[in-house]
Amino acid sequence: MSKSQLTYFYYKLVNRPHLVLGSVCLLILGFLVLTPLLEIIKDSLSVQSYDIAYLPEADIGEFTLFHYERVFTGPLSKALLINPLLNSIGIGICVTLIGVSIGTILAWLIVRTNIRYKGVFGTLAVVPYMMPSWVLALAWLSLFKNDRIGGAEGIFTYFFGILPPNWISYGFFPIVVCLSLHYYAYGYLLMSGALASVDSELEDAGAICGMNRRQRMLRITIPLLLPALGSAIVLTFIRILGTFGTPALLGLPVRFYTFSTQIYASLNASNNGDAYVLALVLIATAITCIWINGRVLGVRKSFVTLTGKGFRSREIDLGAWRWVATSGVALFLAATVFLPLMILLWESLLIVPGDYHLENFTLEYWIGDGSIDETYGEPGVFQSDNILSSLWNSIKLGLSAAFFNGIIGLLVGYAVVRGRGHLLSKWLEGVAFAPYIFPSIAFGAIYIGMFSTSWGPVPALYGTFTILVLITVVKNLPFTSRTGIAAMLQIDKSIEETARVQGIRWIKRMVRIVIPLSFSGLVSGMLLTFITAMRELSLIILLISPSNMVLTGLLFNYNEQDMSQHAGAVTLLLTVIIITGSILARMVSGGFGLSALKNG
Amino acid sequence: MEQIKLRGIKKSYGKEMAVQDVDLTVNPGDFLTILGPSGCGKTTLLRAIAGLEEPDEGEIQFGDRIVFSRKQGVIIPPENRNVGFIFQSYALWPHMTVEQNVTLALKEKKLSSAEVESRLKNSLEMVQLETYRKRYPSELSGGQQQRVAVSRLIALQSKILLMDEPLSNLDAKLRTEMRAELKRLHRELEATTVYVTHDQTEALTLSDIVVVMNKGLVMQSGTPYDIYHHPDNIFVAEFIGDPQNNFFKGQIVEKNGQLHLDCQEIVFPMKNRYSSNSRKVIATVRPENINVSFQEQKDWFKVTLKSVQPTGANTILQVKLGTTKITLLQPEFIRMKLGEPLWVSFDPESLNFFDEETGKNLHL
């Protein structure tokens, strides 16, 4: 290649900052997302130190199919693979059906009918999404705990004197109930968006063609919503497969294992090989689900097209049912949002667990110094260095993950949108979405394997705060890069080009034009990361240690040690902080005074 | 004032050739318009001059400075080309006030604040927006937004101005007004200007030179007068002019030692000796250049009136001579009944003859 050609290509590259940026992002994300996957595939195929007991002749690191044989065909296969898999899939199917149904009905009532208090209901319906998913599990334990695992019995036994049977207290049934009452919020979010964008005129057109109300529903509205419903089902299902907190709290006491708790148990026993094989099975299951969804719905990704034109969304008059529906929704939301929190508050105020008399009430667990015997020497929430430092860690984690996620999401969005039509743009979009298919617990397992020793220029990160930030940022990338792409698509190319021809450099263009114009998208992406990071347990449970303890991890420990007052108090604290934080963020981004953008 | 020189510019998107081998020179201080139907490559060419697109081949020169050369491996990025550019959408920054929109680039150039202020004041005065400094773009009308874009351009004091259909988003009345302003501006700034449009009225009224493009090729480049009266080829003859040129297809025949173009109902005497091999020729004549009489004239063609469209100062008449349709343009408001007879005749001087196969003007 001649010199002039070289300089030509050099200039060509310099002239396309989005390509340079995109390549850098692709390299880093590829390293953070794809190499871990290769790493655990490699580890699952080689002899680990744990295996030496079984394979005395083998050397560590040698190639072996031992783990696969053990998991798939060995005598332990039923306990390691089949039972947890069936449990997980059973839970996944039940929760998805119940959760998405509740979410859809709620979305339909709030978006399309003349039910009262829409605003309040709409806000309350997404609160479960902000709460940690195991809040309900904790509340359930307080309500229905029996004498199976020792400690005090629950409220139900206290008032009625009957011990609930095991199947109510632990295992499949309560896990399904608690997860359903959490994940309906996710279904609601997805479906209310889709419902709000179905033009009522399409239904009116059906009416003009002589269809009755039932036919319009079956032939027009539901088919239009199918793609959204399909993705709601698949996305919820995958999340449930990877969820850890609830199955751990309600399943482990009775040795009821799901896939995620089995991976946790294997890793806890330092049996990494088995854990990685299981994690790979989980990832394969998730990919299969996405693939099936894609095949069934095919190219009809979405019928709902946003034209930017306004359209009417006519409310359906519920008539006499209006008040029935209103009170039904009110009761449901009270039971899923307020009741669990009230129970946990109550729990946190008891000196001796299980005794719900007024004389037994105390504020020791909130403000005490740990001097009374019943607290096991643990000071109250606001006195405990342990809790306050974990709280600080959680907030730090939430804020730093939000910050990095916002920036990276924006840069990925920029590189993807400006590079549209380029292969690089496609790859980058794909890699940024990839963390979605890794179930949280599996992703945590991958990162242990990846960062427990130093890896090239990257030092060993196990037990550090950095690894928590890193994994949270990567795991949330699918969401923030989506918001980044959406925000960038709204900025016309010429807005930036006009700055170019006026001699404004790339950095300055980003700072003065691109970032301010995508600010509200940026904030909502950051807010989402903040909420997720604060309440995250499945993802980081394997990565936390006393040195980088966060509130959710501490909570899990309190619960394992049957310290229900502390667990309740910490959960309440966390929930209050998350909700306050999201309200604050909304106020800041809403009140930023970018009213000028509306018509721009 | 700076010269712009394009040599051998080629640009394709995938298999589609957007610009195929264009040579173009814009003389210092000229107002040159690139005119053509949508998809003809005119915007690509303009963006290539600004540096927003990189041609696959060729060379672009501003004065003595080479800003792009595939051969020498030079690509000066748009940031350093120092051109003014007006986009069709105005591309104002919606989150900045008028003042910030105009001064952002000036501050980036590290000009003194006194200089920035004086350029801001001067440029806003030129577009009569002094009182709108603190407004946001969304608080301005379309015409005012357009003027902000223009004042942003003035403040930069570029020697080269590029405009991409800047008037197409305005309503008809505002467009006429802004057209006059742009012409005044070009005179005052003395900048070499390249203007892209699909509107021939804009092209003819504004330009020193008009370049007509089609399918990525330059069809003709010349003064508005030449483009209108002496089109180089059938495409230009068809594209320029509203109402459109009249076309008459015919065969060359020889009668009594004199050449004629026989178009069945009409026969045009050919002025010069015809020297091409092709026998098929197309004659064109502008609607306003056909002589019209409302009384019978000897040796004129009798035609019948098929439609009357008065536009105020002018009237467009559609008439038929046997089966041949002819369009006429009369500089008056005509009220006539359909079906009435008229008499028309053609001056040999106002006729253009084209070879039907090559589409080229025969310049007879």
Describe this structure in words.
The complex is a heterodimer of chains A (600) and B (364). Chain A is an all-alpha fold. Chain A is built from 25 helices and no strands. Chain A has helices at residues 3-14, 17-44, 66-72, 77-112, 118-130, 135-144, 155-160, 166-169, 172-196, 200-208, 213-242, 245-251, 259-268, 272-297, 321-348, 364-367, 385-418, 423-433, 440-451, 465-489, 493-501, 506-517, 519-535, 551-560, 564-590. The model of chain A is unreliable at 299-311 and 591-600 (pLDDT under 50). Chain B folds into two domains: 4-239, 3-Layer(aba) Sandwich (Rossmann fold); 246-355, OB fold (Dihydrolipoamide Acetyltransferase, E2P). Chain B has eight helices and 21 strands. In chain B, helix 2 crosses helix 3 (113-126), helix 2 runs parallel beside helix 4 (142-156) and helix 3 packs across helix 4. Chain B is globular. The A-B interface holds A 3-8, 11-12, 14-15, 492, 494-495, 497-505, 508, 512-513, 516-517, 594, 596-600 and B 50-52, 54, 70-75, 77-85, 87-89, 91-95, 104-105, 108-109, 136-139, 152, 156, 162.
CATH architecture of the largest domain in chain B: 3-Layer(aba) Sandwich
Strand runs of chain B, count = 21
- In CATH terms, what is the fold-level topology of the domain at 65-362 in chain A? MetI-like fold
User: What's the count of strands of chain A?
Assistant: 0
Q: Biggest protein-protein interface?
A: A-B, 33 and 38 residues
- Averaged pLDDT of chain A, please? 83
Helical percentage of chain B: 10-25%
Poorly predicted sequence stretches spanning 5 or more consecutive residues of chain A: 299-311, 591-600
